[in-house]
Write a structure and sequence with these properties.
CATH superfamily of the largest domain: NAD(P)-binding Rossmann-like Domain
Number of domains: 2
CATH class of the largest domain: Alpha Beta
Structural class: alpha/beta
Helix content: 25-40%
Strand content: 15-25%
Strand order of the largest sheet: 3-2-1-4-5-6-11
Largest sheet: 7 strands, parallel
CATH topology of the largest domain: Rossmann fold
Distance between the termini: 43 Å
Order of helices and strands: EHHHEHHHEHEHHEHEHEHHHEEEHEH
Shape: globular
Length: about 450
């Protein structure tokens, strides 16, 4: 979570004031998130799916019956404090973008139209080599990555001033970029900044946004599987500037199901011979992932989940030889209503085979929007508590959680939730919950 372990909770500054929310990428996820927050603020919808708005947290032993809402327990910002800004490579305002995305019903978009029209995107940092299926027209004119960084920092400071922001958070809601391996330019901050000046090809746009945010002292979350802030240079900068960061890749449809089901199979010591996953989706995300190089970035994010949950090195008889296949197919008629289909071949007592089939007809942006909200509020809380670097307690929200280099990522959804809630308990000076049930333990008589 931090570079140095915390032994006692740090003072948390007040959540009062205006919290600016900056979103690179104003497509389906971003507009669904912003429209949803405004609908909740107007009292015409409820924030289903949001842990910060609807979740509870148990405090103390079960007999105490203390279970407040998370937003009553922890000092997190209120929805009426949020103001929104975005960058996009297309000039449409949030109203037009929401209409084009087709996630929300037409009547709902019209009802929120007065609010959505006020959100005009700033010009995006864009190079088609990194997202080959898009042809951005609303972009920063310079191709210089140093000029991108300078422009984004100027945009941030202008937005801060114009909106009277006391604090800010940035969440990448843009597209999946082509697959990139960590390179020499990523290894330290000096090399990275020289790479900006030299227009190094190993620095994609998402990484420049992350740099700009962290340079400005703004918490950063990466909603795509791109490298983005997950390189030593930017993690060092985050440590220097006391900036919390989190990522990668919103855990929404098929991977959410895997992180729910796989821990159950392992808990019961049921073996797995194969897990075949295929997806069909339309929208901009589907079009981008139709490019093999962008798909590889997503594939790497999705494939790692089972290995870390099932621990085949510890259970070779059960999980040592799984055939794990992931496919994504672009199918325009489906739009944002993604379908994730899974076939799981399991085996049980004496090796007898069984099958499980799942057909998840999900709405990708409906699942992602409350994740964006929770990340905004939790990262703001982390910043006010003086936390910095990778926030592993937010692994709950990610397909491919960032983690300390000496550790493996935690993918089990239920362990992730325990870690998240115990972190909140720690920050607020409450005892962490172990579920040992010792409140009813009677020691034997001497």
């Amino acid at each position: 979570m931090n570079d140095e372990p915390m032994t006692q909770p740090a003072p948390i500054s007040s959540p009062d004031g205006t919290l600016g929310v900056l979103l690179p990428g104003m497509g389906a996820v971003a507009t669904t998130f912003m429209a949803g927050v405004e609908a909740v603020r107007r009292g015409i919808a409820q924030p289903f799916g949001s842990l910060t708005q609807m979740g509870t947290i148990r405090l103390g032993g079960r007999p105490e019956r203390r279970t407040p809402r998370i937003n009553d327990f922890a000092p997190i910002a209120r929805l009426d404090q949020l103001v929104f800004g975005a960058w996009d490579v297309f000039p449409d305002d949030a109203y037009e973008s929401a209409r084009n995305a087709g996630v929300l019903g037409e009547n709902q978009v019209e009802e929120l139209g007065d609010f959505l029209r006020t959100i005009q995107p700033m010009r995006g940092a864009f190079d088609q080599r990194y997202v080959k299926k898009l042809n951005g027209t609303h972009i920063i004119e310079s191709r210089s990555k140093r000029a991108w960084a300078d422009q984004l920092i100027d945009d941030i400071e202008r937005f801060r001033e114009e909106n009277g922001c006391d604090r800010m958070v940035m969440v990448w809601c843009g597209s999946t970029e082509v697959f990139l391996e960590p390179a020499a330019v990523h290894q330290d901050l000096d090399a990275f900044e020289k790479g900006l000046d030299a227009n190094d090809d190993s620095i994609p746009p998402s990484m420049v946004y992350a740099y700009a945010a962290i340079k400005c002292g703004i918490p950063y979350a990466n909603g795509a599987p791109n490298l983005s802030a997950d390189v030593p240079a930017l993690l060092d900068l985050a440590a220097q500037n006391t900036v919390p960061v989190s990522g990668k890749d919103f855990k929404t449809g098929q991977t959410l199901m895997k992180t729910i089901l796989a821990p159950g199979f392992k808990a019961r010591m049921l073996g797995i011979r194969g897990w075949y996953s295929t997806n069909i989706l339309g929208n901009r995300d589907g079009e981008v992932l139709d490019d093999p190089e962008s798909f590889k970035t997503k594939e790497e994010s999705k494939l790692g989940v089972l290995d870390y949950i099932l621990q085949p090195d510890l259970y070779p008889e059960l999980y040592g030889d799984i055939s794990h296949v992931v496919r994504i197919n672009y199918y325009p008629p489906r739009g944002d209503n993604k379908e994730g289909w899974d076939n799981v071949d399991i085996f049980g007592w004496l090796g007898y085979p069984m099958q499980i089939k799942i057909d998840f007809l999900c709405r990708d942006s409906i699942l992602a929007a409350p994740i964006v909200l929770d990340l905004v509020l939790f990262l703001d809380l982390a910043a006010r508590a003086g936390m910095k670097g990778v926030q592993e307690w937010l692994s709950f929200y990610w397909k491919s959680p960032m983690h300390a280099p000496q550790l493996y990522p935690e993918h089990d959804l239920f362990i992730q939730l325990t870690k998240l809630k115990n972190t909140l308990r720690f920050l607020m000076g409450e005892e962490q919950i172990t579920h040992l049930g010792l409140e009813y333990y009677q020691p034997p008589s001497p």
